[in-house]
Structure formats: C-alpha cells, structure tokens
Amino acid sequence: MTQPTQKLAGKVAVVTGAASGMGRATVRTFVEQGAKVYALDISQDTLAREYEGNDNVVARACDISDSAAVNAVFEEITEQEGKLDTLVNAAGISTPGRRATEWMDDINHRMIAAMKAGEPFNPEFMTAIPDEDFDRVLKINLYGSFYTIRAAVPLLKAAGGGSITNFASIAGLVSLPMPAYYPASKAAVIGMTKSAAGELAPFGIRVNALAPAGINTAMLNQSGDDHVQALLSLQPLKRLAEPEEVAQTLLFLASDDSRHYTGQVFSPSGGAYLAS
Q: What fold is seen in the domain 12-94+136-222+240-266?
C-alpha cells in the first residue's frame, strides 16, 4: 500500500510559542509531515522537556520581544539551512503578568455572576491600564511578530517563496469585554498581515493570519471555568477546539495546498466570528 506523501517533506519551519498549546501542536504536526522545525519559546526548560531527543526539532530559547535575540536565532538558521519555508508566529500573551491576570479573573467572575442573576455589569478597563502593561502586551504580540517576520523574509526569499502565518485573535475582529491592550495588539497583527501579504506576494511569499476564539489551551483555562463559559456563550458551536485541530489549519497554510491564499484571516472560532 502506497504511503501518503508528507506535505512538508524537506521543508524548514520556524514556530514561536512552541513549548505549549497551539505552538506545540503545530511543531508536532509539522514534524510528522516531514519538516525540520526550529522551535522557539522563552522557556528553555519546557522546550527541553518537550523536544529532547527529537532530531527533527531544533529547540531554542528566545524572547521574541528582544529583536537582537530574534536576529541571533535567524542568523543560526541562515548558517545551518540557508533558507526558510514557513514561519508560524504562535507566541503571545493575553495579560502582561500575574497581577493583571488576577484582575481580569475577578472581573470575569463578577460579570458571569451578574449575567446569571440577570443584572447589568459594565466593566471598566481603559482608565485602569498602566503604560507598562500596554507596552508589554504590544511588545510581545505585535513587535515580536514583526521582529520574526523581518528576520525571516530574506530566508523565505532565498527559498524561492514560502508562507507566514501570524496569530491574531477573535478579539481583534469583534468587540469583547477585556483590556484594550490585547485586542489592540491582535487587530494590529491583522493589519500587518495584510500589508506584508501585498508586499511579499511578488516573491512567492504568502502571509495569512489565524484568529482563534475558544481553544483548549493552558492560557485560556488559567482564568477558570467562568471565563471559558463566557467565551463559549458567544459561539454557536459550544465546545473548545483542541490545539491539534488548529495545527491542521496551520499545516494547510504552510503547504502547497494553500498556494493561492494570502492576506486572509482564518478564524477557528466555532462560529463566534461570521465574516460577511
């Protein structure tokens, strides 16, 4: 019986946020499909646990908010590979730290309680956001994606083309009750995606974005069931998607199957975002 052809055989990929969630699922899927993957994450210990002994994964600790650190990794890829076929920007944060996460959790709990009681609840975020929180989220979610794209473009050109997929969010497409730094960062990623798609198309480089909603990851579940249920209330499909499902979409976008798609926003959101 003929074995199916691997969709990424001989390809070189970079995946950020590779130590957990959708990034980890993407690394595993890409390797199964024949790629050599440079797995980047800020946590060296977690990377080591996930990928030790996997000859098809090169794990590198990298803070993507540090442009010098990003450039150093891509210089290594230039020396070792001389090309790059696909970049997946999965790294990101929803809040800038524990204090902000606890603040959001409290608001979510009170909002759900008010909804259950049929009472109005109007969370106020804008005047409570300090400069450093806004800066931190934008630095990782937006600047980090920009740094990796900028570093990847020469290698993608050297390969004769390829693909970039940036992680946005449903929060960058619709209004959700949350601090402005997260939707601002993700809406900006969508704008950068569309701009890059136009610029890089002549070089055979496709650039798309993914805008998930309820995905079963640690980042989503850390805020508790109230937050999950609030998100699911927005979705016609009342379940969380698994990271492996999203990885299949990323495989499509990295492979030749998607060679006529660029500048698009794909939203695995259970129907929470219905584009017109």
A: Rossmann fold (3.40.50)
